[in-house]
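To make the argument concrete, we let one protein speak, a sequence paired with a row of structure tokens, as a model reads it:
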Amino acid sequence: MQKTEMSSSFAESSDCLLWEMDVNIPPQLECKNLTLHIPTHLRSAKLRNGSKRKEENVAEFAGVKFPVASGGGLTCNELQKALCSALSNVELMYANNAERFRDKLQEIFYYLRGAATESVRQLIDFSTSNQPLSHCISYVLNMRRRILCKGFELPLQDFKEWLRLSLLLREPDTLTFLQDYAQKLGPYGRRYVENALSTYGSSLDKLCQVVMDIPVPIGHRVTFDGTYYNLTLNDLIAMGDEGVATARQSSIPPHAREGLVEWMLFASLSQGLQLETFFLAASILDRYSQKMNIKPDYYYVVACAVLLLASKVEERNPFFC
């Protein structure tokens, strides 16, 4: 009974206190926007949680686990797969809203860049500084092939993929970059694009439509048939990703390799091949010799084959014909 009376007395005193507080509140005070102060340590935790949820959402779009394993980071191949998946998802969701599409894609790109290994980040930063978002994404999607074929012309298919993405993002400098990138194409693609620029340069929509309709060269227009050429490049890229270069010793002894590479250099110079062709041929030779066991009788046959593989459109006539 005594406990009940104490509870009742406490409730009455609390009601009186609240009534006095209500009375003492100035009537002119606007309380609708009144918010409680969040302590600093709780505020930083709230921001961290919001940032974490945002990163989890981005990772879900890209199809990667969150968080990325510490000390690891995404390899080039993993980064390309994640970005390709994210690009498809974002395009499906925001295809009719260029601003949201651009913001989301930019957010995903920089998250994935930060999740990549240090060496991959350095390659991306070196090759995409002061470039539009469309170029950055296009570069990452084709990064291994770009590195392998550094110094070679830009493939027409890669050029068209960049243009399509630039149009989806509605980038303001599309025409300027189109003119610049056209100079990096091979003679076949460059001729078509320059003709389109001279004819439809005043209408960006018509120009881009004509450029997108340019047929990708196959057969006699390129060094190799398009299908087999891409398969060859993909195989070389896969060889590099497998890490066999450090896991196995070359099947060609060092003294034999030195003489073979020297012969390849003299052959390249005597036939007027470009220096990039020689370097790529030497790289192919090293990778192949670490992958396959080459008999001494076939050293020069393999050397001729890798020089042929490294040839460009301008060098269609092999020196051994």
Summary: The first helix runs from residue 2 to 24. The chain is about 70% helix and 0% strand.
